Amino acid sequence: MVKVRIAPSPTGYLHVGTARTALYNFLFARKHNGKFVLRIEDTDVKRSTEEMVNVILDSLTWLGLKWDEGPFFQSDNLKRYQEIAKKILEDGKAYYCYCTQEEIEERKRIYQKTGKVWKYDRRCLHLKKEEKERFEREGRKKAIRFIIPEGKTSFHDLIHGEIEMNNSEIEDFVIMKSDGFPSYNFAVVVDDHDMGITHVIRGDDHIPNTPKQILLYDALSWDKPEFAHLPLILGEDRSKLSKRHGVVAVSYYRDEGILSEAFVNFLALLGWSPKDEREFFTMDELIREFDIKNVGKRGAVFDIKKLLWMNSEYIRKLSIEELMERIEPYLIKSELIMKDYDKGYLKNVLTMMKERLQTLRDLEKIGYYFFKDDYKYEGIEKILYEGIYENLSYYLKRIELIDEWRKDIIEKDLRIFCDEKGISTKKIIHPVRIAITGITFGPGLFEIMEILGKENVIKRVRRFLEFLKGG
User: Fold this and answer.
1) What is the pLDDT of residues 319-337, one digit of tens each?
2) Within a domain: residue 72?
3) Which residue numbers in the chain have pLDDT < 50?
4) What is the CATH number of the domain that holds 364?
5) Which parts of the sequence belong to the Aminoacyl-tRNA synthetase class I anticodon-binding domain (predicted)?
6) Are residues 310 and 326 in the same domain?
7) Residue 243 annotated as binding site
8) Is 418 annotated as belonging to a binding site?
9) In terms of Cα–Cα distance, which of 136, 167, 137 is closest to 150?
10) Would you state the pLDDT for residue 115?
11) Would 202 be classed as within a structural domain?
């Protein structure tokens, strides 16, 4: 049975690259009726936090990536790592290293002056018995290093094909650190073996680690999983995506109003090419269509503009009722509505604004005036003209007399008023728009006036007149 895993480290938020890797593992498992395992690699004790564990779990849940087993924590498995490291030692395939970091750095500095590339010089492999006994008496901390055999190590990558490395390029790497915790390359081999992982699907920045891990599998006479190394996600400058390109945490995009199904769809296309030119997929369609063989070797650019476009398309597909349900938490959190808000009013607002939304947070920015009237007047210099105060004052008296507050009646009355005054409609429409919204753009003015209601419109126009009078 196919069994894959995602193994994030709780030293930070779930990175979009890790999320894409998790998605591909999930799709691969579901495609082949396999298992998707969640493992938390928390052996970096100083930097790992419970808060980040919860953020990672929440992010995976938001993406809809339901794991079948776990979460398992590496920190719960220390005894097993020590047991396997002891076996490798007893088999003569590893040795204790008493070198301090300072000693290694000094030898490295001197060696590099020759222009050669440093790798650990096996000093502790050749220690005499007396030296070992002295270090033990001194209470020196010791790590365990794995002995790299001569020869070459190769493997078949499901994406990149055959990959080979000369073992001479690999140093005797640490498998157990002097603090008693395992190194990354050692822990993942033990975990993947014990969990029965059949396919390791991860970023191609791990390709250099794979020969080391294969050597450990061989040393332990364990069956090796298959490997597939995914292309990196790139920033717009085509370098590896990082914080300097913008926010890279999955939770940020959730908090900014990206729909989970849009984000999953977007991530799926960062490296994988469907057989046709389709761009929109449900999760079930992704499971059905996904094929690891159609994942490319070249990095894919994280295009925020495309993400926003895709998200806007998903928003348009929502019914007004679905959109209300999805947007409500954002509006409550931003204190634009209360928990007992007028659902009919919000429904009217969303019916008007739905086509303009790229995210669930956009209404807070471009539709703030539907909920609050403490806005500033932006772009007011564009609508000022001589006589604006008098014209708007007369128009205010006019709208106070409107009995049936409907957009068609409001529009007809305004046009009649402008004809009677001998002024162009823009001399009333533009000032009224900025008076009741604070901005110079947006949906149709008369639709906005109808939704806001007569009382609110009158109050806001009066406030604007006070502003003009005071200015």
Assistant:
1) 999 999 999 999 999 999 9
2) no
3) none
4) 1.10.8
5) 322-464
6) no
7) yes
8) no
9) 167
10) 85
11) no
Q: pLDDT tens digits for 422-457?
A: 999 999 999 999 999 999 999 999 999 999 999 999
Name the amino acid, one letter, at 272: W
Consult the annotation and say whether 126 binds a ligand.
Answer: yes
Of the listed 243, 297, 365, 372, which one is catalytic?
Answer: 243
Is 212 among the residues known to form the active site? no
* Residue range of the domain that includes 166: 79-176
CATH number (domain holding residue 3): 3.40.50.620
Q: Is 431 exposed, middle or buried (0-12, 13-18, 19+ CB in 10 A)?
A: buried
Residue 429 host element (H or E): helix 426-437
Three-state DSSP class for residue 186: helix
In a domain, 209, yes or no: no
Residues with Cβ within 8 Å of 379's Cβ and at least 6 positions away in sequence, in order, are: 434, 439, 440
CATH of the domain at 429: 1.10.10.350
pLDDT 10s digits, 350-369 = 999 999 999 999 999 999 99
Domain count of the fold of the chain: 4
Asked whether residue 401 is assigned to any structural domain, the reply reads: yes
Domain co-membership, 241 together with 308: yes
State how far the Cα of 451 lies from the Cα of 435, in Å rounded to an integer.
Answer: 15
Q: What is the pLDDT of residue 471?
A: 62
Written as six digits, the tokens of 439 are: 């901005």
Residues 41, 8: Cα–Cα separation, whole Å: 6
The annotation status of 99 as a binding-site residue, yes or no, is: yes
Using CA atoms, how far residue 51 sits from 256, 302, 404, in Å, is 20, 27, 55
Question: Residue 241 gets which letter from DSSP?
Answer: P
CA distance 322 to 88: 58
Asked whether the beta carbons of 16 and 267 are under 8 A apart, the reply is yes
Backbone angles phi, psi at 181, to 5 degrees: -100, 150
Name the packing angle between helices 184-195 and 78-90 (round to 10°).
Answer: 100
Strand 152-157 to 233-234 pairing: unpaired
Are residues 155 and 87 located together in one domain of the fold? yes
